[in-house]
Amino acid sequence: MSDDLSGATLAAVTAIVDRALDEDAPWGDATSEAAIPASATAIARIVSRVHGVLAGGLALQLAFTRVDPTLVVERSLADGDPIAPGVVVATITGSARSILRGERVALNLAQRLSGVATLTRRYVDAVAGAVSASGAPVRLVDTRKTTPGLRVLEKAAVRLTGAIRAVRARIPHTMHLEVEVDRLDQLEAVIAAEPDTIMLDNFGLDDLRAGVALIAGRATVEASGGVTLDTVRAIAETGVDVISVGALTHSAPALDLGLDIAITPGSGGAAGGAR
Predict the structure, then answer these.
(1) 3-state secondary structure 198-239
(2) Ranges of residues in the chain whose predicted pLDDT is under 70
(3) Cβ atoms within 10 A of the Cβ of 202, count?
(4) Domain count, the chain
(5) Predicted TM-score (pTM) of this structure
């Protein structure tokens, strides 16, 4: 299955997974090695327990294959696909010890990234149809408020849902001047400096409308601060071009995914179950 890494290179994802595996069990999985024969094989399935949007499929796959390249990981869905309770996301076949060694890292990463994608989809849906003062669709962007070490993956999860991509194409972040203001009386001097983007930070709705009117198309208008699912639609209807939402990455709850495992009959070990 191909992966739209959205800026996350294979090498970068592999490095993240390797660090996570080393952090999780630097001395190996002593419990599995003590309780499960080396010959035991198993079939495991990653199953969704809730509704949401899948992300982190490549990281999930690598969490198993970096432990044991002989494991066979078959992903049933692509990143960005909707999931529901009982939906099988991936099937893993091979050494039971190896599957259990990779399980926690695979679930941690897939749950975290699917949570980001799911929350972002809710925000994207909330602003659907809203247009800026210029008549263009209002766009959402993420921020630097990411989990240390996971930024490249979390930003890729955000992009899966349609947030950020159109803005970045229109507003490249190389040689780009953005100025932040937190009061209307700061705008005159800032507009005179001709920045590419003016960020209106923690403005109320009336002040956002006033700011959009004062800027009058001379810069891209970005609203930031105090953005929630309850407020984002009203903010989108003030005429701003862009809304930056830190919550996409700093407040996304993990999506509930689980691993159901069954030892292959005759290969040794216990029967297995849900984890």
Answers:
(1) EEEECCCHHHHHHHHHHHCCCCEEEEECCCCCCCHHHHHCCC
(2) 1-8, 164-175, 267-275
(3) 12
(4) 2
(5) 0.89
